[in-house]
Structures are given as structure tokens and as C-alpha cells.
């Protein structure tokens, strides 16, 4: 009786371990495949280099602004420009949104957020219209952005918070 129970216990243990192993393998696999592919990463990099060139030629700004792709952003945000208390500027792009349109994220969202970041560099922290002032708009257009609409309801300009996404 005891031996039979022991046998049953080990069989169950084996099944549970095997299930866990498969689960972890699957989870890892899922994460890898949902990561941005190399061609998308290259496109982001090339666009960033291009935006840096425009920022330098049009505004004499040579600051290197980091672009981070995060999967921790709320789904309603495509991107965000953040300025921390210690003056660190980071542009975030929402990884979840890349599934819909890579071109939209790179050609529309990235220049839009980059223009917010340049406003920070210029020391203009205007909260007018959620950061979508006329000056921001002119910078956005100078960066050849396609989404430089001033009347938006995104809250994509974020101040004074650290470890946001
Ligand atoms: Zn914006």
C-alpha cells in the first residue's frame, strides 16, 4: 500500500516537473519571438541617426537622445518623451504597438516624440496643450514628422518621474 502510494507520488512529481519545463520553455520561446526583429531595430536606428542629423542642422543640437522600446507602457500610448528630475531625457516607443504598423511607429510616432525631447533640450518645458505648443509643432515639422497635430489628447510628455516603463 505504502509502496504503491510512493510510486504514485513519483509519477505525479514527474508529470508536474515535465509540465513546468514545457511551460518555461514555451514562455521563453514566446518572449523571443515577440521581440522586435532585426530589420525593425535597424529601421529605428537609421531613423534616429537621421533625426539627430536634422536636430543638428536645423537647431544646432548635438545631444544624443536614447530611444527605448518598452513593453511595459500602457496600450493607449504609442510613445512618450520623458524628462527625469536629474535632467535625463529618454524617448520611449511602445513595443506592443509595433505589431500594428512598423512604419507608423517609425515615421510618425518617433519624430513626434523626438520633437518633445528637443523641447526639453532647449529648456522649454511648456505644458501648453500637453506639450503640443506651436514651437513644438514647428520642431516636429522640421524633423519631417507626419503626426505634428497640436490638438491631440495623448499625455505623452512626462516630467519628473523615474523608472516609468
Ligand atoms: Zn506628443
TrEMBL record:
The chain crosses the membrane at residues 6-26. InterPro entries: SprT-like_domain (IPR006640). Residues 62-145 form the SprT-like domain. Keywords: Membrane, Transmembrane, Transmembrane helix. GO terms for biological process: response to stress. This is SprT domain-containing protein. It comes from Halarcobacter bivalviorum.
